[in-house]
Amino acid sequence: MNKQIEQEVRAFWKQEKIYDELLKRQGKRFWLLDGPPYANNIPHVGHIKNTVFKDVYLRLAFMQGYAPLFQPGFDTHGLPIENMVEKKLGLQSKKDIEKYGISKFMDECKRNAALNKELWMHVYEKLGSMYSLKEPYLTYADSYIASGWWAFNQMFKKGFIYEGKKPVMWCPHCETSLAGYEVTDSYKDVSDPGVYVLFRLRDDERSLLVYTTTPWTLPANVAVAVAPREKYATVEIQGRKIVLAEARLPLLSEAGIGYTLLETFPGSNMVGKQYEPLLDVPLQRELAQGKHGNAHLVIASIPLLKERVASKVQAKKNLKHNDVFDEFVTMQEGTGLVHTAPGHGKTDYLIGQHYQLACVSPVDEHCNFTESAGFTGFVKKADKAIIKQLEQQGSLLHQQTITHSYPLCWRCKSPLIFRLSTQLFVKIGAIKQIMQKASAQVKWLPVFAGERFANWVSQAEDWNISRQRYWGIPIPLWKCDACKNIEVIDGLHSLKQKTKTNLSDLHLADQVTWKCKCTGNMRKFPGILDVWFDSGIAPWASLGYPEQQKEVFEKHFPVSRINEAQDQIRGWFYSLMFCSAALFEKAPYESVSMVGWVVDKNGIKLSKSAGNFIAGEEAVDELGADILRFYFCWDSAPYDIQKFNSEIAKKEVGKVFTILLNLCNLLSPEKSGKNELEDAWILSRLESMTQCFQDKLEVFETHGAARALADFIMNDVSRTYVQMTRERNVGILIGKCVERIALLLAPIAPFLAEHLWQKLKNLGFVREKSVHLASWPAVQKKQIDEKLEQQFSVLGGVLELGMAERDKAKIGLRWPLSRAVISTKTALSPAVKELIARQLNVKEVGIEKSSEMRVNLDTRMTAELEAEGFSRELARKIQAERKNAGLKKGDLIDLTVYATPPILDFFRKHQAFLKERTNSREIVFSDDKMPDNAIVSTIREKKSGFFFRNS
């Protein structure tokens, strides 16, 4: 049924050009920016969830009178594409790529970058997403790259860009650097050697005992750090005098190493001492000769920043200090003496800068040792050779194997290596201050997303923005090979002016050179910009600004809303904020809604290898677009991790939709009689539910909104109001409820909402051609009666208990009873008591004060009550036969009723009731023998019959 509705509605939208009309509308400024997924993959249910929330708020904006700027987008650059193409072409390294041909390789990347773009657009259409209406922006387009060049040039002009040599995370397979946030989620437990090695002090018979889990970094050692305020000990082990922290002596016993304690002393006594090179390798000999700077020193530990705590979080948690520091040397692990290699670690580099130590890294771009290291091959595989040499020269005291978490490349999963590399960086200092101020002005949904973001920003460091790869935005910086003059190109026009060439594809910018003023050659800085830079420039680059759509960008910026998953706090949310703060000194977005991940029904991450991957199109086909969309909004808080369960979606959401469609059978434009109390209540509930729905939607509590709507449909309208008014014609009021439901449902379930709207339109309830051309409803606050709703919340319990008492006594609702006594702590108004009497079919309602709610019925049946009961049962049977005969409600009949005299007396007493209820012009009561064509009715084992004809 739902799929049929979707097909019919889609055809209606196309035929009536509903979207054409909608997109032509003028309105207030609103910009929904799409966080571009990779188009080389197929969309999964997590992508669908994101898309649903984007579409909900996009459709909502149209109904609220905005003229939204929106466009889907796709990421097309970076390692995900390169890795896929390498695998496809059977290439193993950058050398293979160069042999294959860089231009050919990039052509192949371009062909594969948007491999599934059409599939994504097809799924968008099936889902009912308005993204299907627009051509997507692609980050590999020349206009996008040119905009990136302009942004880079602006940063360069402001002095934010600098070239520096620092240790960075490096992938040996991809042969490129990675930023810290690119490895925060990519770790694996691995086994590595843990070695205790001895550094011989110069002019001293003692040796320093040092522990490390990275023996491969020992060829680059330049210092050993101690904690100056801690106590250290000299111990004798097998005739050798060895120094370590006193607090760490137990580790010797744990390792089964016997020792004799000779002395203890403060660590400060060790500071400034020198030691002999640990390994006899070329680099260590050069360090001993002072060729690279200070080396082979014992240095004092310093406190290093572990974590910055944002001021908001500081205030919330009553913290006294913003920053959390850790000592470089601690007494919790190792020996209290720390091997320091500034070229191979972040903290090592910081302490090296503090003491102006030599910074060396004998590792090439393949993460193989260079000749100066004295060892060969991949550094981690060289651990065994290094340990063997240490053992042979007597410098290894103890060895063990440990299992620990190790960072991997986020795409190819190769183990990452910290190595010294020349890179381009963006200074964080001034930008961070702008980011912190700007992010405080953003509406974060939920609020804790803003707190997490503030913490992430507070810990931000200079951005390593360069990558040593091919498929991405080329770094637009050219340097003279003679005088080192630097020029940055800021777009297509500037490149044409400078080079007098018309480059067919900006990805080939490495091929462009020109003569410097000094007659040297201007050559492009090798490599590309970090793919997160592509993402960070999306607001303007998606429009081709400033060379294209300048007025559009300047009219709409900043973006009104973005909506992406929780991992984007350190990804897209951050890169957008960074680039906007650097260029425009303000936040790039006004509000951010953060979406939780989708896992399977058992809470396990979705993956093809685990066999639980759910493709987006598969989910849409199985459930239908509207059920899937409503399920995502209803099932859990949008920012929580969601356990996807299609069976729950079918059962629970399907039930809501079925009941809603059934309500349409009760629609009637005919006016009913006077308004009753239940009418005032349902109108009050309609408005208070609308208020709740809109309030929840406003703060990204979509589950609260969807549940409020579902509860109104299932409980308030169907279960309560329809039951209360079963003997009345309330089709107009139900129509009013369905109209409001359709409007509220339109952003969430656009197909069903349209289907409802067209039913309403055919009956004259609404005028607009489409629900999606209608305005968002305003709450009629004057109609909300909170006291009445409170009374009805008690009423519901009373009726439930009363019906249960009738069932217990086996007395149907059509049989009136004399009295009901209600025990309740809530005072009930006379009007509510009257309604209770009507609904429970009792003549009188009494109230008793009690903390516990109870309903006691007087079930004694008098002759009068019995007469009324017989008449009600007969009327129901006649009504059913009228319907079977195809008679309409207004058609009059002449009715003849046959029964024995006692039963006829019952019917005669209620002749007026029977006439009105069965719409009879005349009723004849007869105790003659029933004719063969009479319809027999047995009530409480008493046989009667009737016959009717149109009058």
Could you characterize what this model shows?
- The strands form eleven sheets. Strands 12-10-11-8-7-17 form a six-stranded mixed β-sheet, covered by helices on one side. A five-stranded parallel β-sheet has the order 2-1-27-28-19, with helices on both faces. Strands 6-5-18-20 form a four-stranded antiparallel β-sheet.
- The radius of gyration is 39 Å and the shape is elongated.
- Helix 24 (677-698) packs across helix 28 and helix 26 runs antiparallel to helix 27.
- By secondary structure, it is an alpha/beta fold.
- The two termini are 41 Å apart.
For the structure shown, list the relevant keywords.
single chain, 951 residues, alpha/beta, 6-stranded mixed beta sheet, 37 strands
Kindly summarize this structure in a few lines.
With 951 residues, this protein is α/β, with parallel strands linked by helices.
Q: Quote the distance from N terminus to C terminus.
A: 41 Å
Strand order of the largest sheet: 12-10-11-8-7-17
Classification by helices and strands: alpha/beta
Shape: elongated
On the 0 to 100 scale, the average pLDDT is: 92
Rg over CA atoms:
39 Å
Write the layout of secondary structure elements.
Elements: H1 2-16, H2 18-23, E1 28-33, H3 45-63, E2 66-71, E3 73-74, H4 79-89, H5 94-100, H6 102-113, H7 117-127, E4 137-138, H8 142-157, E5 161-171, E6 176-178, E7 187-200, E8 207-212, E9 223-226, E10 231-237, E11 240-245, H9 250-254, E12 260-266, H10 282-288, E13 297-300, E14 303-308, H11 311-316, E15 323-327, E16 337-340, H12 346-355, H13 383-392, E17 396-407, E18 417-426, H14 429-439, E19 443-445, H15 447-458, E20 463-464, E21 466-467, E22 477-480, E23 486-488, H16 492-499, E24 514-515, E25 521-524, E26 528-529, H17 531-536, H18 538-541, H19 550-556, E27 559-565, H20 572-584, E28 589-595, E29 598-599, H21 616-623, H22 625-635, E30 642-643, H23 646-663, H24 677-698, H25 702-724, H26 731-745, H27 750-762, H28 786-809, E31 817-824, H29 830-840, E32 842-849, E33 854-858, H30 863-884, E34 893-898, H31 901-909, H32 911-918, E35 920-926, E36 935-939, E37 942-950
Parallel strand pairs: 1-2, 1-27, 3-4, 8-11, 9-13, 19-28, 27-28, 29-30, 31-32, 34-35
Antiparallel strand pairs: 5-6, 5-18, 7-8, 7-17, 9-16, 10-11, 10-12, 14-15, 18-20, 21-26, 22-23, 22-25, 24-25, 31-33, 34-37, 36-37
Helix pairs in contact: 1-27, 4-6, 14-15, 14-20, 21-22, 22-23, 22-25, 23-25, 24-25, 24-26, 24-28, 26-27, 28-29, 30-31, 30-32
